[in-house]
Write the structure tokens for this entry.
Amino acid sequence: MIDQSADAIPEGLIATRVCIDGPDTYPAFIDPTETFGSRVVPYFTLDTVRQLAHDTQAGAAKHDPRGAAAIHIVETTPDRNGEPGRVVLHIDWWQEANVGPEDAVLVVAPNEHGLYPIGRENWHWSVAWWRCACGTANEWHVSQCSGCHLTRTAQPDKPTPCDCGCNPELGAYGEYDTTSSASRQHFVDTGRFLRHTDRTS
Ligand SMILES: [Zn+2]
Ligand SMILES: [Zn+2]
């Protein structure tokens, strides 16, 4: 089974996280040449497909069980090596309820890496973003912030109060120096940019 660590990324794919429009994001592999505007085609491990099955079925049950699509996994009992067979189904319950079952079920076959392109045809997956302490939003797989020297995994826990002599009162838009490296470093350390007046005093 493929995990999401760097040495297990299939050639040509990028390990990232994707989302549709809610706060839920899922680990996935994407092919950077297979994008349609902001839409991407994610390839998921079986573990993530299980999570998607859980979340889509729970979402459908909560909102409209006959109006949503959901992922289902049908498994056989294990063979003599202990391996179950399985089929991943993408079921459009709206179609089933309103048109009939004939075209309501799509089998999602794994690719050669055992990864499942859930929602490849019509789910609007996009790459998730992470917001750095400096305020810059970066695509999930961009691990080093494009706006400062921090990385996604080394974000400061909490801004600490500053004793450098800067003005701790909340300033207004335009008062802060957001470009100099001294001010950016101050932001990283304290959660607050220096004012232009702090810099000159
Ligand atoms: Zn940053
Ligand atoms: Zn300060």
